[in-house]
Amino acid sequence: NRCQDVCPANFQGHPLSPSALEVNKRYLLKEATFGSHPDRLLLPLTETVLSAEAVWACTTCYACVRVCPVGNEPMADIVDMRRRMLVDGIDLDSGVQNALQSLAANGNWMSKGKRLRGRWAKEMEFPIKNATEEPVENLWFVGDTASFDERVVPNTKMVARIFQGAGLDFGIMYQNESNAGNDVRRVGEEGLFEQLVEQNLQAFGKAQFKRIVTTDPHSFNTLKNEYPQYGVKFEVKHYTAVLVRLFEEGKLTIKNALAHYKVSVYDPCYLGRSTCGVTSHR
Fold first, then answer.
1. What's the pLDDT at 276?
2. How far apart are CA 186 and CA 194, in angstroms?
3. pTM over 0.85
């Protein structure tokens, strides 16, 4: 039960147990091989080993795979089940369906027009390069939430000011950027994922850059680990790693150090590939 113990969905009370998935698979194979119901292998796994509700409860955080001492991969099984469910025409949650339709039409999951992606950059007090029109060292792949969500855009602008103040040569692709596709693939929509990859590779082909810097940990994961499957490989850095390097090089310094503060730091599973959670540091 190590995988169940680290599963955030299970911890939150959702009907998902990675260990039950693996055990039920074993029972199914045993019954089909040695029992009197070999035809059970022809049934969908949602009728034999795991409910559809549990399939959609998975956050794809990879914790179950990391912790398994014998190499089982429950998360990979669940993503494959989602792919099969989509092929079989299983009805999706309306929110998921709307997000996928927006991604297909607009390249983002927030139903925003493509030209609005770089609106925040045009509001800055200094110009931000268009990486598809002039060379940059760092191509900033901003991501959907950081580009469109009004609650997050102020943080995006602050990161841009820090980059600018540190003398970092960076640019963005404005409307040429599309969602990287990480979450699309985890939903099981492989065809839409490949469409988004093709769109981004075309945009990358217009740009001249040395490395990609991402704001979103999900974009970081798929650009670094999955885009190479399509014959390309980029140096990909999360912006937090870039900030650390700027501090190490002395291009960023702390003017007013804060003491005696307790800080909560969220460890995104798509950066650490470990367990999701919040840890406190002094």
1. 33
2. 13
3. no
